[in-house]
Amino acid sequence: MGTFQIDFGDSAKPDRIIGIDLGTTNSLAAFMDLTGPAIIPTAEGGRIVPSIVSLLENGSIVAGEPARARLTTHPGTTLYSTKRFMDQAATGLPLGGRTITPPEAGAHILLALKNNAEAFFGEEVTKAVVTVPAYFNDAQRQATKDAGRIAGLDILRLVNEPTAAALAYGLDKRKQGTIAVYDFGGGTFDISILKLQDGIFEVLATNGDTHLGGDDIDQLLVAIALEDMGGHCENPERLRQAIIAAKEQLSFQLTATIEVDGYQRAIDREQFNHLINPIVERTVGPCVQCLKDAKLTAQDIDEVVLVGGSTRIPLVRGTVEHLFRAKPHTELNPDEVVALGAAVQAGILSGEVKDTLLLDVTPLSLGIETMGGVVSKLIHRNSTIPASETEQFTTAVDGQKNVLIHVLQGEREIVKDCRSLARFELKDIDPVSAGLARIEVKFLIDANGILNVSAKDLRTGKEQSVEVKPSYGLTDEQVEAMILSSLVNAEADIRERQVREARVEADRIIAALESAKLNEAWANLPADDKQAIHLAHNELLLAYHSDDHRLIHTYMEKLDKASLTLAENMMNTAVRGALKGTKI
Ligand code: ADP
Ligand code: MG
Predict the structure, then answer these.
(1) Do 295 and 188 share a structural domain?
(2) Which ligand is in closest contact with the Cα of 246?
(3) Residues 390, 409: one domain?
(4) 313 CB within 6 A, ligand 1
(5) Closest CA to 19 of 188, 165, 209, 237
(6) How far apart, in whole angstroms, are the C-alpha atoms of residue 501 and residue 372?
(7) Catalytic residues
(8) Number of structural domains in the chain
(9) I need a labelling partner for 165 at 20 to 30 A (CA). Which of 117, 304, 502, 574 fits?
(10) Is the CB of residue 244 below 6 angstroms from any atom belonging to ligand 1?
(11) Which of 319, 350, 381 is the last residue of a domain?
């Protein structure tokens, strides 16, 4: 008889995953507590880690509160707002005598948060969900992931900040709805409109101003105080801190006093509102544009969520309420809601939070093969799922009866360099002239990552479809390798694609010319014209095999010009290339 061993070890316990808001001004970490998401305290006993790094005399770098304290004393060796430069990940920011890249600066802030979490839990923390602005592009998202890697944090998922805010409020529990997330932070203003369907968020539109925030209010008040002081100020940084303190008080009380180095000035809320109104008004335009881009009006918005410390200002709240004609959510701290939402997402990933569908993105682009062996992408990588995209294609051959739909995955331009997912034929389409058929191809990825591809002949209504699971049999390493190879080969790929597309176009013109020669207009064409066409035709055939797409285009244009009279005579636009559309 054998013995059974029951494993009570770590494998039964899910890994701890924390949620992090890596902000421009402030960063926070949160976790899923028994009653819901909660903020992880900082080493100083606070909740917020200022997104500031500072180089010490001994050469080491500190982040957070100790770095903020050095802003007044060591401004030359202290950096803030480095998140702004995440799109220039390789650029060194001067920090004292040396340089630091934006992901490295981010890593120091993440490390401070990681250390706080480890002290709080009394165990190592290596996994996190980190939020990023909805408008962050691939490079900025990658730079954020790099920051995690440098800090020894495995970033399991990047979540859009507005989505995290909506999650913190549990808005995913609604069946459906439209949510506006108004985020007015320290240095940036973002407005996002999310659509919620069956527990899944989709970003419909984003807008904002990357240089508008609480900092602008601070600067305005500093300028006024400096004028007051006759332009002389002993320590401008100390003045700024005093002004920030007064500004923050004015959100809760009707008057505040700016006090610094013997200078004193009282300010009441009415004066304050009057002063900052132009700054707050600058958030209105982006909101209006965002609604417009989402093809919605204020009436369509079901919920409004406030994010960012500057939304504590009563004037800002009033402006938002007026704009969206709805009382915004203010139950949670606006500077904590993104981190709390990240913790909810972390809980979903670790299995602590149930009943919520995962928010996910497609790791690789999806598309179909078009003439010349090139790939036409319909859904681009990093699209949030569910996702759907529709495009029209046409046929390449006169009287074509069947079209082959070849579904591909990957970032490269040429079919042979991508992963083939499926092939199917749409049969018995209306056999019209080349370029006249209208084939609608639709890609739809559902919340479970299943891809449905359908093709429909819009003339006959005939339709055919296939279902695949694009992630099937793909490891993370393979996905990364595919993305990397597209970066390495980007230039060569584009050139190859351009040449192939030019050849497809040349084929079309030559075929059109051949069929024109059967027309009686050809027989009646003056010999000079025929001669010019023959010449241009031969030149195009010579250019055809060159690997310079511009050369092929030049001779296509020459042939086009030479056949102008013929085309006019035929009253047929075929030769002149009026038939547009990508051919399957
Ligand atoms: P970010 O997302 O840019 O990192 P936060 O959301 O933490 O920044 O917002 C920071 C900004 O909020 C700062 O300009 C800060 O002065 C401002 N802020 C914080 N609390 C208040 C308050 N009570 N009243 C007004 N502004 C505040
Ligand atoms: Mg923020």
Answers:
(1) yes
(2) 1
(3) yes
(4) yes
(5) 165
(6) 6
(7) 21, 83, 161, 183
(8) 5
(9) 117
(10) yes
(11) 350
